[in-house]
Transcription initiation factor IIB (Nitrosotalea sinensis), 314 residues
Amino acid sequence: MLIEILIRYYMTRESFGSGGRCPRCGKGPMVTDNTTGEMFCGGCGFVLTERVEESGPEWRSFSKEEHEDRSRTGTPTSLAMHDMGLATIIGPADKDASGKPLSASMKSTIERLRTWDSRSQVHEPVDRNFRQAFSELDRLKDKLALSDAVIEKTAYIYRKALDKGLVRGRSIPGLVAAALYAACRDTETPRTLTDVANGINIKRKDVARCYRLLLRELDLKMPVVDPIKCVARIASKAGLSEKTKRKALQILKDAAEIEISAGKDPMGLAAAALYLSCVMNGENKTQKDVAQAAGVTEVTIRNRYKGLKESLKL
């Protein structure tokens, strides 16, 4: 069998090297049928190969997104999928192995098999839990504009929580939100607890309770949030100029050097630095404008503003 394949390969190569003529009659051009994969002579009908190796993209799709953007391979493995992307499914194309369309009776049979195949993917309670949790996570990703790295970290934390039995008796959305906030803190993505709670439509105190549980039970060590990373977001929401933003960054760097930023809310400190920068540059923005953009109170901005002004002697 191997020798026969090699002979056909060399015959094909020689025939194309000599202008793509038939090796049998030497006259007819070689024609390739893209549907069946056969290569045959257009003159005498001699079949040179019954199947041609596909060199282009593998036009199969495993989800709605892939159906619109097909690629050579299937879905990549991901912790944010209930089966990690390792399960096999029956494809949506109604064609057999040789590319021929299926008959009407076989189509209905395959459709029924496809339905049962998708149902049998989630038969364990753990799989159902993951599917519900990660569908919530997928919605949060779009709402909060999060990166794939944050989503993968969230899925990892949630899987650890499920292994430890922390989900039993608690709301799945609450633990997903807590895992997401922990992932944001770990990857230094500027998202507050209020942002996450509003995104998933749960009370802030419930998300905070689940977050403390994760920290305690999973022994997570969270880095301190850098207020400098919050400046761009607040400035963008408040519509501040680039000059004001740069001055606020310099104020925060000076504050970090003399260690007056320790123990302060990063969002409040960043908002106060931006307001101080507005005052110094003569930009017409009130405390209320900056406070609403940062999600803090005007009292917080006033207190942080006084502290920064006195400490940096501005």
Residues 125-218 form a domain with the Cyclin A; domain 1 fold (CATH 1.10.472.10). DSSP finds 13 helices and three strands in the chain. The CA atoms of residues 220 and 243 lie 38 Å apart.
